[in-house]
Structure formats: C-alpha cells, structure tokens
Amino acid sequence: MKKVFLSNLFLVSTLCFHVFAMDKDSFFEQSDRFFETNISDYGMVDYEKIKLNRDPLDRLLEYIHQANTGEFSEGEKKAFYINAYNLLVIGAIIDHYPVASPMKIPSFFDGTKHKVGGVRMTLNDLENKKLRLPYNDPRIHFVLVCAAVSCPKIANYAYKPDELDEQLDQRTKLALNDPVFIQQTAKKILISEIFKWYRNDFAKNDSGILEYINKYREVPLDMSKKLDYYSYDWALNDVL
User: Taking Cα atoms as reference points, which of 93, 82, 78, 74 lies closest to residue 142?
Assistant: First the structure.
C-alpha cells in the first residue's frame, strides 16, 4: 500500500511539475501543437474533441495565468498575448460547451475576468490594452478570433515571436482575399463590421479603408463601388 501511495504521489508531483515548469519557449511549442491538433484546415474549432481531453488546454491556460511577461521581449509579448487571447476564448467556450454562440454566454467579452500574466482582465481588456493600443497594428484584427463564424478564420498554428510579422501578413492577406469575409456585388463592396467597430484603426473614411484592404488584395477592389457592411454572424465557429 505504501508503494502504491508513493507511486501515485510521484505521478501527481510529476504532473504538477510539468504544469508549472512550462517556460515561454515550450508555451509557443505546445500552443502550436494544440492549434494544429484541434483546428481544421478551414479555420474551425473542434470544441467537442477539446472538451473530451482538455488537459493540454488547461496546461496552456495555467501558464497564461502565471507567465512573467516582464521578462519577455516586445516580440515575445505580442505573440504571447495573441495566443493567450485565442486560447482563453476557446477555454471559455469549453467551460460552457455545448453552446450556440459566445454571445449566449453572459459577459463573455467585457465582464468575465481571466488572469493573464498575474493580472485579472477581461477579453476586451486583453485585446485593447495589451494589443490594440500598445502596438497600433491593424493586422491584430485578423488574428484574434472571437469564436464566431464571422471572425477571421483561426490559424491551425501558434503565433511565434521570430515569425510574427510574416504570420500577421499571411493571416491578413488570407482574410482580405476571402470572398466570404470581403464580399462584392455589382454595386457594393460588403465588408465585416470589424471595420466599423475599429474604424480608426484602419482609416478615417471609406476610401481609406478600401485602400488599406487593397494593400493585401491579389485583385484590388473597385474603389468606385459603395462600401457597406454585412451583419456579423455570431454562430459558434464549431467544426459541426
């Protein structure tokens, strides 16, 4: 009995060690593995699969809670916060899954607080105070994924400090060339309400927004067409 107890104690201690021994490098590596395993090629999340085995996610969330971001470079910090946002969103969905939409969860974005680097903050705080305002990089909007169908598609890999600029460009180009994300009719160009909610991040007027989009387009949009917005679809980005 004593041997069994000691064996179990050793196993628990080992598991706890692996949770708390994660460093920033292994965080990026394990995040990469998690996204690759649970995100489809079409940018949908397999929430059911994650819920059946949420240990890998919980280990990543534990690191997010206690990470010492004061020791990070700016590139490491930016990549960390992007991954942290996407992982925290998935974790919050899993806590309520099955659920039809993040909007069905009270205070999902602006009320519920998560610990990030030892500081409690909402998802909106993380987006705005740790990413949008400090970095002033509109490409952020194409990599933060809010668990809805109308969000830009979530990547099936982690954002890494030494590849981040290239990854941000890649995901921005992917979104802005997606005919579902940027829609066209004979007379109009219909774009995501993200460009309305965060208008000043992109430009001060419609022509400026179109110019921004065209920087990343393979086939430029017709600047003479009227700009409008399609309604945001808040249905869950589930692989179902």
Answer: 82
Count of C-beta atoms within a 10 Å radius of residue 211: 15
Sheet holding 226-229, edge to edge: 183-184, 188-191, 226-229
Report yes or no: 176 and 216 within 8 Å, Cβ to Cβ: yes
The ranges assigned to domains in the chain are 20-229
- Mean pLDDT, the chain, rounded, equals 93
pLDDT at 206: 96
Average pLDDT, integer, range 163-178: 98
pLDDT in tens, 85-140: 999 999 999 999 999 999 999 999 999 999 999 999 999 999 999 999 999 999 99
Other C-beta atoms within 10 Å of 164: how many? 18
Q: Bridge-partner residues for 15, per DSSP?
A: none
Q: Phi/psi class of residue 7: alpha, beta or left (left: φ > 0; alpha: ψ in -120 to 50)?
A: alpha
**Axis crossing angle, helix 55-66 with helix 2-20, rounded to the nearest 10:** 60
Percent over 90 (pLDDT), the chain: 91
